[in-house]
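User: Structure please.
Assistant: Input sequence and predicted structure:
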Amino acid sequence: MSRRGALSPVGRETLHDRVYAELRSSLIHGLFDAGEMMRIQDLAETLQTSTMPVREALGRLVSEQALEALPNRSVRVPTITRERLDDLARARCLIEGQITALALPNLSAEDFEQLKQLTVACETAFRSEDGDRAHKTSELNHAFHFYVYRAARSAVLIPIVESLWLQSGPYVRAAAHIHDEHRDIPATHHHWALIDALERGDVKGSIKALTDDITRSFNLIRGRLDVDDPEERAVRHG
């Protein structure tokens, strides 16, 4: 997938916010590899803007722990480590499990139908030969999960979940490189299990299906980190 094709030029209105939003979305959807340097000039050229809003956006993303500031004043996507992987997986399971439990009583038959449509669309995107397939499936996966989470009606928990997804982007990207559609279970398997549990009003089953979905990607990377050093370096740098 061409990165320049995925990043969209931004207009001049509220330029700083739009640059930040574009880079933030790109990180969430795994557009950048773990350990990749974020070069201000290159990003400014891609986004067709000056370097100032890019510099400001990178600073905001560093403060949100989505990016890492290095001693030489450069910025990069954090590298993948076992400690950070375990910490993110644990936090996501705890917070997203709770918000799913809160959402369940507020979901209707119409909501379940919408979740099924999003899952079918995701399956279709996975089968596509489109060069933008990875970005499309990531967007649909995000739409599926946040459709559920918004039903919790929690102004406090939603931003926390968004922050965790922002930090998880490089891990999702690395897992996508490892996942084998022909050997591993389908990426939407746990979505269907979650929908089924939600429809039955099964809180424990819903949390389990969600936890299985979250840990699927992290387990793929964890398995690769457990092998020899050359393989580990390959995972860390995509």
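The first strand starts at residue 68 and ends at 69.
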